[in-house]
Amino acid sequence: MTTTLNEVKNRSFKSIFQTIRSYLIDSIRQLNFYSNDPFWSSTLTYSQQIINTRLFLIFISISLSIVIIYSSLINVTNNVTLNEFSIDDFERLEYLYPNTINALCSHESIPYEKFLYLSPIFHQ
Length: 124
Known about the structure:
elongated; single chain
């Protein structure tokens, strides 16, 4: 008794699936973006309207795919400013981001007087 019940359920699921599938296929085949108004569609036959609709959908899907792929491949640069960092931090960041790292000097680590002495002599 249970096997027949399972068979009936399987058949009903298959028939529902096939019905939905055939409905979707027919809907796609008959898809037409043109109106039935003779003023707008007098120059195109029904088959030309369907072909134009399909071409439009193909071009739109290709364009959207290109935009999505392009936007996913764009590199976004985030600027992070570190006020105080050690040489180890700098070397680690330089290893991770070799092309985009930029270190601005905001203060002197060694005063100029340690390695540079300037004594000008002015002549009159």
